[in-house]
Design brief:
The protein is 59% helix and 3% strand. It has 290 residues and is mainly alpha-helical.
Length: 290
């Protein structure tokens, strides 16, 4: 199982645990009742209990740090770069802070919803705090697990004196793809503001992903300069082929391809021609395909 799969498994374990899993299912039921304007919403809200997820989320953050560290050690061993590794520490206070307070936030969200329900507020207002909290739990757990995993990988690379390379998925956003294949020296940070678009997400430098909520990027100890170059070429190709998720508009990806074409990218002629045609018609036909 890859490090990415292990981190995703940790996220699922937390989000599907008995307490939070039951809560999320009830929130989904509330969403469905809300769509049907059902009068059962108030009764369901009043019967709900706030979930307890913080302890499990913190444990997942610690495990994620270990996953990242083990993956980095494996890469260094395979590439013959594994030397003596010193103390690598533990997940940062920031990573742990991302999931601290989740239980308190859950109690507050439920108390607000139940107060509104008793006061006779409309269904939209009653369910809003609960839906908002459910979204926040998923966002914060995903972010913290990914962050801790990358911290573990970076800690191993830094301890070994090996540069790290940023790895983005083929259909990552225009900002993350701009980082894919970028390399930073041990103990240093990646530059801020990289993007295939008109404006980057961040202005300051960053040590490792995640770049944004729901980011799936990772860092690895650098295997070779050729590997980093291959990642850069694949990122350019993804932009020129329009590979992306529905979370980014077609217009945004067309703009990214147009900007890249203006820089005369090192890409196969057929890929460049495809991108030129897509830009001309304002639409990619290969959006979801690798």
């Amino acid at each position: 199982m890859s490090a990415e799969d292990e981190l995703a498994k940790l996220e699922r374990q937390v989000l599907k645990a008995a307490s939070i899993g039951s809560y999320l299912k009830r929130v989904d039921t509330l969403r469905q009742l809300l769509e049907r304007a059902s009068p059962d919403i108030v009764a369901l809200v009043l019967a709900m209990r706030s979930p307890r997820v913080e302890a499990q989320a913190l444990a997942a953050v610690l495990d994620a740090f270990g996953v990242g560290a083990r993956d980095a050690l494996s890469i260094l061993e395979e590439s013959g770069q594994l030397d003596a590794i010193g103390r690598i520490g533990r997940p940062s206070a920031e990573a742990r802070a991302n999931v601290r307070g989740l239980d308190k936030a859950g109690r507050e969200a439920l108390a607000t919803a139940q107060k509104l329900a008793r006061a006779g507020a409309d269904a939209q207002a009653v369910t809003a705090p609960l839906i908002g909290y459910a979204n926040a739990v998923q966002r914060r757990v995903t972010y913290a697990v990914n962050q801790a995993g990358n911290e573990g990988s970076t800690a191993i690379a830094d301890a070994a004196g090996i540069p790290t390379v940023w790895v983005a998925e083929f259909n990552a956003c225009r900002h993350c793809l701009a980082y894919s294949g970028r390399v930073t020296s041990p103990g240093k940070k990646f530059p801020g503001g990289l993007t295939y678009g008109s404006k980057g997400l961040n202005t300051g430098p960053l040590k490792h992903p995640p770049l944004h909520p729901h980011c799936r990027c990772t860092v690895e100890p650098l295997r070779s300069k050729e590997y980093a170059s291959a990642l850069r070429r694949e990122a350019d190709r993804s932009v020129l082929r329009g590979f992306s998720l529905e979370s980014e508009s077609m217009g945004v990806r067309i703009d990214a391809a147009q900007r890249l074409l203006g820089r005369n990218p090192d890409a196969p002629k057929t890929v460049v021609q495809y991108a030129e045609r897509a830009v001309k018609r304002g639409k990619f036909t290969t959006r979801g395909r690798p």
